[in-house]
Amino acid sequence: MPDQIRHRILLLGNPHSRPDGLERVLVRGGFQVTETPSATPPDFILYTPEAGVLSLADDIRALATQATYGGAPVFVLLADGSANAATDALLAGARDVLVGPINLPEVRARLDVHIRARTEAREAQEALRARDLLFDIFQEVSAAVRADEIFQTLVRRVGQAFGLSHCSLVLTAPGDDKGRVVAVYENPAIRDLRVDLGRYPEIQEAIRTERPVVIQNVHEDPLFASIRQHWNKQQIEVNVQAAVALPVFVQGRAAAVFFLRTEKGDPQLRATDVAFANTIAQAAARVLENEERRSAIYRRQISAGTTDETTGCASLDALDRRMRDEFERARRYSLQFSLVLIDIDRLREINDRLGHTAGDRVLGEIGAILQRELRAPDFVARYGGDEFACVLPETDGAGGRHFVERLRQVFARHTFGDLGPANAPGISAGIVGYPHSEALRPEDLFTLAESALQRAKSGAPDRIGVIGE
Known about the structure:
This protein is of the alpha/beta class. Helix content is 45%, strand content 20%.
């Protein structure tokens, strides 16, 4: 039978009107056949009406609408009947009608055709739902800034979609005996956990073979033979039922595993579920590739002498080049971007109280935070003694304000080593968005942003000045 499912058929009506051998043909065809309604609605109803029934249409209408049968399609077998009777049955809600003499292979074929059509319709609906879910997930991911936020979104949405007990992303590589868990669905607080891969044979196998590993029952599969011995020896009760490990490739090499597990009683993972999760795994691969490119760019900046040694951010020369490039790109293709100048409040006081060495360490921590909080296409440079400049492509003034507000929250949560808890330095910010009527050259944007920064220091709400608001 299609999908290897034993569809249930309820036989109703006059048993003496049924064709000889009907039940035998259905059972041999893989159907479950019964004449007694149960609490579970049947998949089909085969109805053979009484001879001379007064209102065939009323009987069929009642079967098709009775709640006990859950809307199961009604197939009518008319041992003796006219074309009008068949027409009345179909108009009353019968899914199909066969008029005698009944050909049993034809009955079986019509049932199979209906099953196939229903399966195809269900698969089409699931494909549409998967497409809509993917669109929704990628919409949410596009609003995230940091890689760890994206990873957490991906594992959370997959875990929710399939009712998983566990979903995570584990960074590892061929030959590694340890993995680094960077996102976990059921415990979002876990962002950097080292695990022994010896406890996860499915992850090791996925990395070794560079192919998806799908285990429907970890208590029987040979891959888990060794770890099961450990469970038994340590008397560990394991509630895991199924496990899926999907390799994630970065530039052609396995660099991580998208890891799913279900527990006993969870819905069974289907092939379509695994395929969907694999699509999400490839999205994670793109994020890892972007992070690797960003790291490579940063390394090239350092080797080229374009990085400020104290903060690790780009130098003024690198900022000038990036601004010219971004300005020209935005002008040519009618794009937008923002320039954000950030001033670190009370840095002079920190230098006076703790010394310039401590002040440099605070600047270094601020530089690291800025680089971590930026998206891959963004750019940050040290602009002056206590100032930083951020270039945010595809971001308007309101987006720049949101970035500064989020950055302020990150600073408040961070404990600076030389300042202690709850003593984070405040920030003031000036923001200008391009295009702007007064910005005819990249240099004009710096002038406008500096004016916005002065407005912020002079008492603008939230100490954020935005040119154009």
